[in-house]
């Protein structure tokens, strides 16, 4: 069952910018600006609440580092959300956090305030890899944050991990997976390092100061993760995401299935029934726009039925469940309007599996899912 509506809120504050990061963040913000930003955010949330008539089923507080906010600020934000929106009693309410910002007191306060899912930005349990990624925490801090989260009552906990880091060995990656599994999370997100333009990593590679990502090594690491996590009862329900049964991220699943979600904060993207919009990325400009115009919208577009169908193919094939054929009826389209002749060829070559309900990528070809999806679309 698709959630009626999701809500994404972007908190941009970070103590530092990691050299691979291209997110909308604000480094070293003073306390008074953080409060200004939160007031602007409340103003935007009030605007969205006026046009929201269905229950909020999922909330995701992302960033940036949401847990860089104080306990009182996070409590105030939750109070604002409950005052503005009708939130389902069983809503998934997630918060992203970095270990260095999470002590036992803050975790207890978060759980008591209403957050019920924690996503920890662990990235690695290898100190050398963490240093290369520019992370501020240690493996011991990940352990401490995780265990304190469990003590605080968080049942649903995700660990974010990164592989394919230049210089990272297969043994380092195996050790990170083993360390992560020993903590007994019920969700793991394992992402291949992507070099984004204009980031320090991109500049260092161009200058010859750092080797580029080794795609073959990254593929080996992804295969290691798939085998290891499967053996411990995790299901790979999306290319980069593994979960124990019942602990899939409901918020992300709704997005991948083409659902609706409101978005607030700098750089946030929202979607409602084919209408997509996005906010100003710069946090200072975001605050200024909200104060002066009561909107921080930087752009918007109306997606055609064909565009929406193509997106659902690209996203759906990344899911274990695959692309559902009924989505063609949803948009009033035929197969020939969405897919080219390569579709039947790839089905014959067993690079795709098709039945009356779904179109799926077989597990052994999941490494090339995106390439397969692009090949079959008109």
3D structure, described in words:
This protein has 378 residues and is α/β, with parallel strands linked by helices. The protein has 2 domains: 6-256, Alpha-Beta Horseshoe (pyruvate-formate lyase- activating enzyme); 305-376, Orthogonal Bundle (Arc Repressor Mutant, subunit A). Helices cover 41% and strands 22% of the residues. The protein has helices at 31-49, 71-84, 104-113, 127-132, 139-152, 170-182, 200-206, 215-231, 250-256, 283-293, 305-316, 326-330, 335-338, 342-348, 369-376; strands at residues 6-11, 13-14, 26-27, 56-63, 87-97, 117-123, 156-163, 187-192, 235-238, 241-243, 261-264, 269-272, 275-279, 297-302, 323-324, 353-354, 358-360. Strand 5 (87-97), helix 3 and strand 6 form a beta-alpha-beta unit. Helix 1 crosses helix 10 and helix 3 runs parallel beside helix 5 (139-152). The protein is globular, with a radius of gyration of 21 Å. 38% of the residues are buried. The mean pLDDT is 95.
């Amino acid at each position: 069952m698709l959630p009626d509506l999701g809500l994404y809120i972007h908190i941009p504050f970070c103590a530092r910018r990691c050299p691979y990061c291209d997110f909308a963040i604000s480094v070293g913000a003073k306390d008074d600006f953080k409060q200004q930003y939160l007031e602007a955010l409340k103003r935007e949330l009030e605007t969205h609440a006026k046009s929201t008539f269905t229950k909020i089923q999922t909330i995701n507080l992302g960033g940036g580092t949401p847990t860089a906010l104080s306990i009182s600020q996070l409590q105030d934000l939750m109070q604002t959300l409950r005052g503005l929106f009708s939130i389902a009693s069983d809503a998934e309410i997630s918060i992203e956090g970095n270990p260095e910002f999470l002590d036992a007191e803050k975790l207890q306060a978060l759980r008591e305030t209403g957050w019920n899912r924690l996503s920890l930005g662990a990235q690695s349990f290898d100190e050398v890899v963490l240093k290369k990624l520019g992370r501020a925490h240690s493996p011991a801090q990940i352990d401490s944050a995780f265990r304190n989260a469990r003590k605080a009552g968080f049942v649903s906990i995700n660990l974010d991990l990164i592989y394919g880091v230049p210089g990272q060995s297969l043994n380092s990656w195996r050790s990170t997976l083993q360390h992560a599994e020993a903590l007994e999370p019920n969700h793991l997100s394992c992402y291949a390092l992507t070099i984004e333009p204009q980031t320090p990593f991109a500049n260092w590679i161009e200058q010859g100061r750092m080797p580029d990502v080794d795609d073959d090594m990254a593929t080996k690491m992804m295969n290691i993760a798939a085998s290891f996590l499967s053996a411990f009862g995790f299901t790979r329900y999306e290319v980069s995401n593994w979960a124990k049964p019942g602990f899939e991220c409901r918020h992300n699943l709704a997005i991948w299935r083409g659902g609706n979600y409101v978005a607030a904060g700098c750089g946030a993207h929202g979607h409602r029934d084919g209408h997509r919009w996005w906010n100003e990325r710069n946090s200072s400009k975001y605050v200024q726009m909200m104060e002066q115009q009561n909107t921080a919208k930087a752009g918007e577009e109306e997606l055609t039925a064909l565009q929406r169908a193509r997106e659902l193919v690209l996203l759906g094939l990344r899911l274990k469940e695959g692309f559902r054929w009924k989505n063609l009826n949803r948009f009033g389209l035929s197969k020939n309007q969405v897919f080219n002749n390569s579709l039947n060829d790839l089905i014959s070559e067993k690079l795709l599996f098709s039945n009356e309900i779904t179109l799926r990528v077989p597990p052994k070809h999941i490494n090339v899912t995106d390439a397969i999806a692009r090949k079959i679309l008109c």
